[in-house]
UniProtKB/TrEMBL annotation, chain A:
This is 2Fe-2S ferredoxin-type domain-containing protein. GO terms for cellular component: mitochondrion. The keyword Nucleotide-binding does not apply. PANTHER family: FERREDOXIN-2, MITOCHONDRIAL, FERREDOXIN/ADRENODOXIN. It comes from Vitrella brassicaformis (strain CCMP3155).
TrEMBL record, chain B:
This is FAD/NAD(P)-binding domain-containing protein. The keyword Secreted does not apply. SUPFAM superfamilies: Nucleotide-binding domain. Its cofactor is FAD. The chain crosses the membrane at residues 629-647. One of its GO terms (molecular function) is oxidoreductase activity. Residues 75-236 form the FAD/NAD(P)-binding domain.
Length: 139, 663
């Protein structure tokens, strides 16, 4: 069947657009900014974030080979996803500001069950990286 | 006799005596660095100035911005080094500032740095970062120039004259030394060279590790690089040959006789620097048996080490992996798999030369250690007593994987502790000066900034910090050194090429993509993901050749076009095949048809006719030409009309209103 014309789409009650929209929210560490992102079941959390230009890196392209899609979940949401694999835990060990409910976004497949959850991105790592500037040389 | 000689001297008249040269004012105290920098600047110009230069008031490290002397239309940034650090810095700069114009220069022709030449070939998923970097290179505000080396082709001060901001991100170019006897023997390789060898780095083209003489190899060091080396040495060639491993390394590893690799570290399990992922991978390899001596493990798990482990989740999760390896210990004699033995509390003492050929290494002497000290700062101390008996491992291949070192840029003082450049939030500053002096417009990122450690992802917070600092300074117009000679980024390449003594082909981003595609094409032929060019020479030769092909093609098209314009010489005779990408015409009406209908022309339809060969671009040319004719006709009509009006004025003396008089 050909796709309905754009102006007819709003009258089409049978298509997928009438299904309830699934949504997940990415919040910055301190909660000052939050980005709600719509998703369809089957997408990974990293894909959803990259679509909406959330500040998340995903350097290895979702292969579980880096720790740049690190997200921190709420405790009640943590159980909604399957247990992390050993590979994911290995990468999480390298993540900065790791917490007990940390996961890698590329390994989290979203389903209808995950509608409305909120995840936090790890803290800005800049200020804590090197600490205060300490002169090292001879004065 | 003596008198006559003196009398023969010409006597100058008083008036023409040359005036005494002006006494220069006493020279102020200038530190060694400044003097060196000035000297260097002087040398860059190749010749002494013919007329006195105006006194330089802007010293390179002065915090001064001269408004008006430079147009702030855009921010010109040069990044030295196209590795992860450079690309991430570029990425964040582009993201946050629209006026950013970035040039990336690189010593090698191909960008990527350690992503291309450092990551092991059997980890292709890690190399996916390159997609991110290619996106940066595709940005119209970014230009890439490969095959330009800092301090050889272009000086650091030259760059600072051309750009507002210069970011040094070229990482570490040297190896740490162990300080052992026999370290410089043949067969002793640094991990850097070994890794470059199997990754096809141009500098490692001449490396020929001896894999056939002995069955054992020794890797010194307990990091991820050491595990990479051990893995590549033992992994099945049927798995390696599908990757983008260098062709030379592939054929050498095919004949490898090595079946036991010792990975030697002076301290224990807990202190090792490798990550769990790499360690776990060893246990999952096909045809490789990783083993650990339980006695060595027991010796290094003292109370202090256990305490170190307590707070560290990663170390705790490492223990099950090590235990699996200890279970493999008993199978070491009976297995036919290749063996990787992780050895703890073992230090190299000396590397012994071969008896008959004293220029090459024949084995290494190892010594047992014990751990001493508080948790977190335990040191390896040599054992004494009966256990102190040194152990000898016969091996012709010894790889030192004990870390990298910086290569100094003349004029920058490096800090002593870890060798990284002295900086504050990414701004380079002169060390050993009080108060600290910032060198304006010069920044660092990557290994040069934080020392040779960490994974690719560690560059992200680091590059963010440098990018933030740069933007802060640019937006505030502070700490940016602007010379009177600032020209912006225009003409940089021309400038560099002009100044070169030895001509070098500069590689651009277009060339990179071309080379990459060619490497993939060659790889498909050999059943690999890519077959890299191993020498700069080959790469440049390929680029020049494809460039010449393009030129030839253009030349052909031009000749065809001129034929069509100047005559009707048929280029194709009867039943000749038209080449691809060519239009073929038999008559003028057909040309009109092609132009008007834009239908694809089928060259096979010329059978039995004479024709004129046209390049595809002719269609646009003809359309343009036609529109020119229309324009000419229009102008001609206007001229006739104006002439007619003038004629009316001449006849009646009054042009009048056309609706009254013209009818």
């Amino acid at each position: 069947m050909p796709p309905p014309l754009p102006f007819l789409r709003r009258f089409n009650t049978l298509s997928a657009s009438s299904a309830p929209k699934l949504r997940i929210t990415f919040a910055s560490y301190d909660g000052s900014e939050s980005t709600p992102c719509p998703f369809t079941a089957g997408q990974t959390m990293l894909d959803v974030a990259l679509e909406k230009d959330v500040d998340i890196e995903g350097a290895c392209g979702g292969q579980c080979a880096c720790s740049t899609c690190h997200v921190i979940m709420k405790e009640e949401d943590y159980g909604k996803f399957p247990e992390p694999t050993e590979d994911e835990l290995d990468m999480l060990d390298l993540a900065m500001h790791r917490q007990d409910t940390s996961r890698l976004g590329c390994q989290l497949k979203l389903t209808e069950e995950h509608d409305g959850i909120e995840v936090k991105l790890p803290a800005e790592t800049i200020s804590q990286l090197d600490g205060p500037h300490v002169p090292t040389g001879k004065e | 006799m003596w008198r006559s000689v003196t009398r023969a001297r010409p006597v100058l008249p008083l008036c023409s005596l040359p005036s005494a040269p002006p006494v220069p004012p006493p020279r102020p105290f200038i530190s060694r660095v400044r003097r060196f920098s000035q000297l260097q600047h002087f040398q860059e110009k190749h010749q002494p100035p013919s007329e006195p230069q105006p006194r330089q008031t802007v010293l390179p490290w002065e915090d001064e911005v001269r408004e008006g002397s430079f147009r702030w239309d855009d921010y010109n940034v040069c990044i030295v080094g196209a590795g992860p650090a450079g690309f991430y810095t570029a990425k964040y700069l582009l993201k946050k500032e629209e006026m950013m114009q970035i040039d990336i220069i690189e010593k090698l022709p191909m960008p990527g740095g350690l992503v291309r030449y450092g990551v092991a070939p059997d980890h292709p998923e890690v190399k996916n970062v390159m997609n991110d970097f290619e996106e940066v290179m595709n940005n119209p505000r970014v230009r890439y120039f490969g095959n330009i080396e800092l301090q050889k082709e272009v000086g650091i001060n030259q760059l600072r004259e051309w750009y507002h901001v210069v970011v040094l991100a070229y990482g570490c170019q040297k190896d740490k030394m162990l300080g052992l006897d026999g370290e410089d023997l043949e067969g002793v390789l640094s991990a850097r060279r070994f890794v470059f060898w199997y990754n096809g780095h141009p500098e490692a083209f001449s490396v020929q590790p001896d894999l056939t003489s002995s069955e054992e190899a020794v890797v010194i060091g307990h990091g991820n690089v050491a595990l990479d080396c051990a893995r590549v040495l033992t992994r099945k060639i049927s798995e390696l040959e599908k990757t983008d491993i260098s062709d030379l390394a592939e054929s050498a590893l095919r004949q490898s006789a090595i079946r036991w690799v010792h990975v030697v570290g002076r301290r224990g399990v807990v202190q090792a620097a490798w990550t769990n992922k790499e360690l776990r991978e060893l246990t999952q390899l096909d045809g490789v048996l990783p083993i650990v001596d339980p006695a060595e493990y027991e010796a290094n798990m003292n109370d202090a080490s256990k305490k170190e482990m307590e707070g560290n989740r990663g170390k705790q999760r490492m223990m099950p992996i090590i235990e699996t390896m200890m279970k493999n210990w008993d199978r070491r004699e009976i297995t036919d798999k290749k063996i990787i033995q992780l050895r703890f509390l073992t230090s190299p003492v000396r590397i012994t030369p071969h008896a008959a050929e004293p220029w090459r290494a024949d084995g290494i002497e190892l010594r047992r250690n014990r751990l001493e000290g508080e948790p977190g700062r335990q040191r390896a101390v040599p054992l004494d007593g009966p256990d102190a008996e040194p152990e000898y491992v016969q091996s012709n291949l010894i790889i030192k994987s004990v870390g990298f070192k910086h290569d100094a840029v003349p004029g920058l003082i490096l800090s002593e502790e870890d060798g990284s450049v002295c900086h504050h939030e990414g701004r380079v500053e002169l060390a050993y000066q009080s108060p600290f002096q910032i060198i304006g417009g010069l920044y660092v990122a990557g290994w040069l900034k934080r020392g040779p450690k960490g994974v690719i992802a560690s560059n992200i917070p680091d590059a963010m910090e440098t990018a933030n600092t740069i933007l802060k300074d640019l937006w505030a117009r502070e700490r940016i050194y602007i010379s009177f000679r600032s020209k912006g980024r225009e003409g940089v390449v021309e400038k560099v090429v002009e100044d070169l003594r030895i001509p070098r082909r500069i590689v651009t981003d277009k060339d990179y993509f071309q080379t990459k595609n060619e490497e993939i094409r060659r790889g498909i032929e050999r059943g690999k993901t890519a077959s890299k060019f191993l020498r700069i020479k080959d790469m440049i030769q390929f680029l020049d050749k494809s460039y010449r092909d393009v030129l030839d093609k253009e030349q052909k098209e031009i000749s065809v076009r001129s034929l069509l314009i100047h005559g009707t010489t048929p280029l194709l005779t009867r039943n000749q095949r038209a080449p691809e990408g060519a239009l073929l015409l038999t008559s003028g009406s057909e040309l009109d048809e092609i132009i008007n209908t834009e239908r694809p022309y089928n060259p096979s339809s010329i059978d039995g006719k004479d024709g004129v060969l046209l390049p595809v671009q002719y269609r646009e040319f003809a359309i343009r030409q036609r529109s020119e004719y229309i324009g000419l006709g229009y102008m001609l009509g206007m001229c006739v009309f104006i002439y007619y009006c003038m004629y009316r004025i001449h006849v009646s003396g009054d042009p009048g209103r056309p609706d009254e008089k013209w009818i």
